[in-house]
Amino acid sequence: MLKACMTRTDITPPEGLELGGYPHYPRYNKGAHDPLYATCMYLNNDGYEVAIVTLDLLWISKKHVIAIRKMVEEACGIPGGQIMISATHTHSGPWASGRIDSDDVEAGIKEPVEYGLDIEKKIAAVIAEAKENAFEASFTVGTAMCGAESGVGGNRRRPGGPHDPLVSVWAIKDTADRIRGVMVNYTLHPTFIHEWSEVCTADYPCYVKLQLEEMIPGAVIGFTQGCAGNQSSRYYRQGESFDEAERVGRIIGKAAYTVFEKAEWVSDLPMKAASSEMELELRSFGTEEELRAKCAELEAVYKDLWAKYGTSTNRDEYYLWQNANLKLLGAEDQLSYILAMKKGDQQRLMDEDAPVEIQVLKIGEMCIIGMPGELFVEYGLFLKGMAGFKTVVIHSLANGILPGYAYTPESLVSGGGYETDNSCLSEEFGIHLTEKALETVRKVK
């Protein structure tokens, strides 16, 4: 017999806490456009327990996940290996884990320790609350389509390039046939709200949740992020605004709701969890002097393009200076890694998240694969095709963060760019991470 519950708690930071997500734009939040949440789905099938938690944050370090799992085990007995914690990756939430942007590394600015400790307690408490309030339930899972043709987003490195159109949905309802909780997974950077904003927001996932809350009154809605390392609205959006975030979020939310039109509900849900670990595989960037020269060269290119096209309303001209800006940011991140290494901070950050954890949850005919950091969509598509389950969902930014993107070897030799330049990882790390994920999937089959 299945028992389940879905709960959430507010993790919106106090005013004044700095927002992360956009280098060179220090933003000390002046309030919240919408609350940031930690949302938990708890499942218990004949005594086997699983807790799936999603956070409206840029990312969360493994050190926090370890602390939360320990608190939960002590408070209510759910085994830590059966708790998955991931982030939606909003770029308009507070720093909660290690800082790697060049300005802050040079200035010695760290993440807010008190806020990190506070959310650890809140997340542990919301998991315990979900277990305490569990009810007899049934479960469903399904997918809908919402691809780049829907005008919501796609490949940000190459228009028309690989993207993941699936909206994955799983939900619980009670014995009175009321849907009480829904999780939605989609693969798209939450970057409709840019550096001009000084308020907290979950970005478009806020409106995914709002749309479903309106369509399913009383239900708690959560959102999880797929392999969106090279997926964004860059070539597809109609603007950078809350109106545009709402347009896209509601489209995804409406697509998610179609899953319930043919939903099959089950009250027996065999589950199993497994985890594996692997070491980081890093590359070398060269010397500080070489990187400072590279940054100066790229900055000159960016400033020249900004002077020519910075105020243009032509989207092609916008892409010229914005892509040059991203190229510069990637080089600056490389420099920040070198500077952080000199101060010992980079090793500290890596120690907090290494070795890397890959976690797999088998939930009936669904498989959730949790991996840290930002992965290119190609890895997610491969895993969905090869894992051997009816429904495969990838949670990126799960149980930790990586020092940069898990990019594809092809992307490194076909122009590089922000994502590849930003990453400390070797060109084959993403392949090895994916192979390890498939090994872990086999443990639960």
How would you describe this protein?
By secondary structure, the chain is of the alpha+beta class. It has 12 helices and 16 strands. It has an 8-stranded mixed beta sheet, covered by helices on one side. The chain has a 4-stranded mixed beta sheet with strand order 13-14-15-16, covered by helices on one side. A two-stranded antiparallel ribbon has the order 2-3. Helix 9 packs parallel to helix 12.
Essential attributes:
12 helices, four-stranded mixed sheet, globular, about 450 residues, alpha+beta, eight-stranded mixed sheet
Low-confidence residue ranges? none
Overall geometry: globular
Q: How is the main sheet built?
A: 8 strands, mixed
Strand order of the largest sheet: 6-5-4-1-7-9-10-11
Distance between the termini: 21 Å
Task: Bin the helical content.
Answer: 25-40%
- Provide the succession of SSEs: EEEEEHEHHEEEEHEEHEHHHEEHEHHH
> Approximately how much beta-strand content do the residues carry?
15-25%
Class derived from helix and strand content: alpha+beta
What is the strand tally?
16
Rg over C-alpha atoms, rounded to the nearest angstrom: 21 Å
The residue-averaged pLDDT reads 92
Summed up, the helix count is 12
Summed up:
This protein has 445 residues and is of the alpha+beta class. The protein contains twelve helices and 16 strands.
Helices and strands in order:
Blueprint: E1 2-10, E2 18-19, E3 27-28, E4 37-45, E5 48-55, H1 62-76, E6 83-87, H2 102-107, H3 113-132, E7 135-145, E8 154-155, E9 166-174, E10 179-186, H4 204-215, E11 220-225, E12 231-232, H5 242-257, E13 271-278, H6 288-309, H7 315-343, H8 345-353, E14 356-363, E15 366-370, H9 377-386, E16 391-395, H10 409-413, H11 418-422, H12 429-444
Parallel strand pairs: 5-6, 10-11, 15-16
Antiparallel strand pairs: 1-4, 1-7, 2-3, 4-5, 7-9, 8-12, 9-10, 13-14, 14-15
Helix pairs in contact: 1-3, 4-5, 6-7, 9-12
